[in-house]
Design a protein that fits this description.
- With 330 residues, the chain is an alpha/beta fold.
- Helices cover 34% and strands 12% of the residues.
- The protein has twelve helices and ten strands.
- The protein has helices at residues 10-15, 17-26, 41-47, 81-87, 116-126, 166-178, 192-202, 216-224, 235-242, 256-259, 286-289, 293-315, and strands at residues 2-5, 32-36, 52-55, 71-74, 94-95, 151-154, 183-185, 228-232, 247-250, 268-271.
- A five-stranded parallel β-sheet has the order 3-2-1-4-5, with helices on both faces.
- Helix 8 packs across helix 9.
- The longest helix is centred in the C-terminal third of the chain and has 23 residues, at 293-315.
- The model is unreliable at 314-330 (pLDDT under 50).
Length: 330
């Protein structure tokens, strides 16, 4: 069995997909078990290569009671806590970044300024396991009872520094609504007040507020069938990349070269004004605050045009050239 640790959030799982697919290809006859939070289970299913999920909310005691895995893989961090958590399972082999504090001297060195996707592909490559950093797609779920063709505005983020001002999100939402977009505002249950504020300022109806009304699987389905996504540097941005949904993403203080979409996909645009000194207070970071509404609307026009061109190009590809859907392992 291959035991993989990635007990983090939506964006972390999405950026780990190329590494997970590489492990599946490297160990085709082994069960692949992923250590991740229970609430991520709907997204884990969409990766299509995980046989079993082991539930864990972050680092701590793993409580592993099964036989020692053939290989344990640390896709969580550089250690030492994550290394020690996997060591509890007594794996016959560990794939991880080198960390002297954990007594682990094998593996490549950690690089702080590296794209999150490339980080894990590089680590596996050091062990002779090739990974395709462009293999980011998730299986597309059905829409269920959710609306399709909507424009998703997601104003929240875990850190206050990564939250563009709500009045600017509202200004963009109001303009897009005036252009004929059906705008919905998403977020976690704790972000419902923020979403309601954005919707109210934008003049949207009350039923446009979906924050707290969808679990992560429903949010994924909403994004998969959306017209456009507008968000900061947070998990929903990675879902847009995974489903090739046109997106405008607002970055700061962290640059898109660390967490952004692939730069060769013009239907995703990450806006970034470059590094700026940190502000004095706990609010929005100056690098994000410099992004204004006209710049965001101009980016919307660009990704919309790129998406139209892409659809036209796809329609011209002969049917026999299409790739088959990913197989699901159970």
């Amino acid at each position: 069995m291959i035991l993989v640790l990635r007990a983090l959030g939506v964006g972390d799982l999405a950026t780990g997909v190329p590494a997970l697919r590489a492990l599946r290809a490297a160990y085709p006859g082994e069960e692949l078990a992923l250590v991740a939070p229970r609430w991520l289970a709907p997204l884990v299913e969409l990766v299509g290569v995980v046989d079993r999920q082991v539930f864990a909310d972050g680092l701590g005691h793993l409580g592993w009671s099964g036989p020692p895995p053939a290989v344990a893989v640390n896709l969580h961090g550089r250690g030492p806590e994550s290394h020690r958590m996997l060591a509890e399972a007594r794996p016959r082999r560990l794939l991880a970044f080198a960390n002297a504090d954990a007594g682990w001297h094998d593996g490549p060195p950690w690089r702080a300024e590296e794209h999150e996707v490339d980080r894990w592909c590089r680590m596996l490559g050091w062990y002779g396991i090739p990974a395709d950093r462009t293999d980011l797609a998730l299986r597309r779920p059905g829409p269920g009872g959710l609306p399709t063709g909507v424009t998703v505005v997601h104003p929240g983020a875990k850190a206050a520094q990564r939250r563009w001002p709500p009045e600017r999100f509202a200004a963009v939402a109001r303009e897009l609504s005036g252009r004929g977009h059906r705008v919905v505002v998403t977020g976690s249950p704790g972000e419902r007040d923020l979403a309601a504020e954005v919707a109210c300022r934008a003049g949207l109806p009350a039923d446009a507020v979906l924050a707290g009304a969808t679990d992560v699987g429903e949010l994924a389905a909403l994004v998969a069938h959306a017209r456009l996504v507008l968000s900061g540097d947070t998990g929903v941005a990675h879902l847009a990349t995974a489903f090739a949904t046109p997106s405008v993403l607002l970055f700061g203080p962290v640059p898109p070269s660390w967490w952004g979409p692939p730069p060769d996909r013009p239907w995703h645009e990450a806006l970034w004004v470059g590094p700026r000194p940190a502000g004095d207070g706990p609010g929005v970071h100056p690098a994000l605050a410099e992004l204004d509404v006209p710049a965001v609307l101009a980016a919307v026009d660009r990704v919309t045009a790129a998406a139209r061109s892409r659809v036209g190009a796809v329609r011209r590809i002969p049917a026999q050239a299409a790739h088959p859907p990913l197989a699901t392992r159970r």
